[in-house]
Amino acid sequence: MLELKNVYKSYGEGGQQQSVLEDVSVVFDDNQFIALLGKSGSGKSTILNILSGLDCPDKGSVIFSGKSLYDRLDSELSQIRRIYFGFIFQSFNLLSNLTAYENIEYPLYLLKLSSTERRRRTLDILDHLQLTQFQHKLPGQLSGGQRQRVAIGRALVKSPKYIFADEPTANLDEKTGHEIIELIKEMQKYYGTTIIYVTHDSEITEVADKCLFLTNRKIEKYVHP
Ligand SMILES: Nc1ncnc2c1ncn2[C@@H]1O[C@H](COP(=O)(O)OP(=O)(O)OP(=O)(O)O)[C@@H](O)[C@H]1O
Ligand SMILES: [Mg+2]
Which pLDDT tens digit goes with each residue over 69-98? Predict the structure, then answer.
């Protein structure tokens, strides 16, 4: 379980200081598709950064597995991120000199898994994502939708507990965007991971288990029926 507890965050100094989050508390349960919605500049990416160990709150805490995330040693925090957290970005962020196969396999190297296990998991996920025929291609030789499928594979291959997705369909056309949302949802259920999915797109309410709306520095909770 991951939890934000009375989190405050502001940017800037002195009179220029701008408060982004004020007393935000949310519990992120296991095995859920959670949508985080809000206007541009409302603090969605800030919340993802705080939850994923990249940006410390000014006040309040992030609880992971019963213990505060930012009270741990740097090495422990890096290890948590490596094992339990995955990321999907708007701009894919693939390694351009690695093939689709190698991009997906890469996180398993960092976890020092055996070559047999790495191969088994990578081939399995390539098959799930219908990318087997593109496995030897470089990102530059793939379409946007195919690149995002590779990025989904890279995020999921280690079966992380949480995936943080920041507007993963923003650079795709509408049809491809819908396909990617459906695919992320399907994979989330299959791998039993929790996805925290940031978007502007209110259509996400159709697929999410829970929707959180960020307005006026607070989270308004809305549970989909
Ligand atoms: N590192 C930073 N330094 C200063 N201000 C920041 C920083 N990061 C974010 N902000 C400010 O905090 C506010 C929230 O930013 P954030 O990126 O979280 O919004 P967002 O909801 O993700 O917006 P978008 O939908 O446009 O991506 C904005 O006003 C932004 O200018
Ligand atoms: Mg953002």
Answer: 999 999 999 999 999 999 999 999 999 999
- Residue 190 pLDDT: 92
Which of 24, 65, 28 lies closest to 46, judged by CA? Answer: 24
The phi and psi torsions of 148 (rounded to 5 degrees) equal: -70, -30
For residue range 194-211, list pLDDT tens digits in order: 999 999 888 898 999 999
pLDDT at 225: 61
Closest to 80 (Cα-Cα) out of 104, 64, 57: 64
**Distance separating alpha carbons of residues 157 and 86, to the nearest angstrom:** 9
Residue nearest to atom 31 of ligand 1 (CA): 41
Q: What is the pLDDT of residue 13?
A: 86
183, exposed or middle or buried, with CB in 10 Å at 0-12, 13-18, 19+? middle
Domains located in the chain, CATH noted: 2-11+18-223 (3.40.50.300)
Taking 70 as the pLDDT cut, the residues of the chain under it are 225
Burial class of residue 162 in the structure, from the number of CB atoms within 10 Å of its CB (0-12 exposed, 13-18 middle, 19+ buried): buried
- H or E element in which residue 2 lies: strand 2-11
Query: Which residue's CA is the closest to the ligand 1 atom numbered 13?
Result: 41
User: What are 218's strand-pairing partners?
Assistant: 215
Whole-model pTM? 0.95
Token output for 4: 């934000």
Q: Check if 19 has its Cβ closer than 6 Å to any atom of ligand 1.
A: no
